[in-house]
Specification:
GO molecular function: phosphatidylinositol-4,5-bisphosphate phospholipase C activity
Shape: globular
Protein name: Phosphoinositide phospholipase C
Organism: Acorus gramineus
Oligomer: single chain
Helix content: 10-25%
Structural class: alpha/beta
Largest sheet: 6 strands, mixed
Enzyme class: hydrolase
Number of strands: 21
EC number: 3.1.4.11
Length: 596
Amino acid sequence: MSTYSVCFCYRRKFRLGTAEPPSEVRELFERYSESGAMGAEQLQRFLVEVQGEEGSTREDAQAVIDSVLREHKHLVALFPKRGGGLLGIDAFFRYLSGEANPPLSPSLGVHQDMTAPLSHYFIYTGHNSYLTGNQLSSDCSDVPIIKALKRGVRVIELDMWPNSTKDNVDILHGRTLTTPVEMIRCLRSIKEHAFSASPYPVVITLEDHLTPDLQAKVAEMVTQTFGNMLFYPKSDSREEFPSPEELKMRVILSTKPPKEYLESKSMKDKGNGSQKETEGDEEAWGKEVPDIKAELDDEDKNGHDGSEHHNDEEDLEDGDQTSNQIVAPEYTRLITIHAGKPKGGLREALRVDPNKVRRLSLSEQELVKASMSYSKEIVRFTQKNMLRIYPKGTRFNSSNYNPLIGWMHGAQMVAFNMQGSGRSLWCMHGKFRANGGCGYVKKPDFLLKPDENGEVFDPKAEQLVKKTLKVKVYMGDGWHLDFRHTHFDMYSPPDFYTRVGIAGVPADTIMKKTKTIEDNWTPVWNEEFIFSLTVPELALLRIEVHEYDMSEKDDFGGQTCLPVSELRTGIRAVPLHDRKGEKYKSVKLLMRFELV
């Protein structure tokens, strides 16, 4: 029983209902059980026929039963005369809604081919990885780098600048009020935590604002810090990148080969825009029907293009810099992934050299503009070369953008501000839950090679529906354990509803919602939604719970995002996460998935 005070005059009491099996779960239990009990043989049939776990054996089913009864010992006594080892309806429900029944298989692990070139993978990529908060005045630290690596991020960006005495190297966001952190501290933290979440390679992308003598010092720091962990090529160019498998437990560098140091007045101005960024994240992803422009402008509702404010030294074309160059050879030889933008415009930048691979960087709005005229050329470029997309310079609050436009064009490094929050970042988290969370997800074949007619995939072309995803939302539970009883409403239990939808190519992107269940900590919806998918390989299932508030903005009740390609069919317990992407201890939804 929970009590709520109203106007200091009287108290309202609400019974705290316990989670009970939905009617469909009861029906399935009756169908697969005998005399109100389910043994290993019956559970095995359920796992195969309903859950789609075709390889399940009787021993697997018995292990499930034993695990459930060990965790809930009071349920064993329900069948004392039958020797235990059987599930009643309550134990069966506990299994379905428990941690042992997640929507993604915990045993699947890294299951994709990891021997292809790096360009064949989407890579978990950070932007300005050293920032603790906003882009203008937050502290620079190794702490967000450590957090990113522990989450599985594989690409760390460091902006290198001379320190105040010009004799050492600091990491900071140049020409802002951000406080610097020493580069050596960042490098040591990367070494310590690089492989805490994944054994696959860490790429350090360097934005270089150094003199040749400091570049030489960086080379010394890098080689001494990483030692044998550091991989660098034996020749200046290669026809294809090495594979993640080949680079296991290695660290590699990616940057533009050094040129003569340019004083700040001759370099492009960075991040000094005057228009304030808003947090338009909620509405931009919140349409009930697809809004392509809103999807591209996620977290940015002010309409400011921001194209004149770039975040990347690579925006300077190779021919823009002084021809009489001074270089640090020790530094140059350590670069594995060479970056740069050739002189001659975008068409030249997207030209594929059969004898050499490289990395190109584009801002988010440059990609949008390029995709209007060069969509297929971008896909062709990314089949062999690397493409990095980064946030525009006016995202002062460290917001992010819709990552799908990059992924559908084959961009491997869709760089995000990992210290933020919002729907874009939730999608990034969801994307890299695939392939065991190792930070590398193999691109689908249509992005890697031409079709049977020799045509490159065209992201703008209309596609036929390939798959249909059916999603049923049964119920939710756990909020009363993770939140105080007045968190959502001072005067009554919460009024929850669930939003379910797809983040994918524009034709697939949509959001739908359940009805609102009033005054209930354990809402039961029993609603089904159907999604037609033209490119299921890139689709992400978005799930959010909100609490309806008549007078104010609806409260947040949890979220998750899951790769459709790895969803387990059947009835699953779906844990929810907070705004930052941290999993709640108890909050979850009971859902059913069917992909046909």
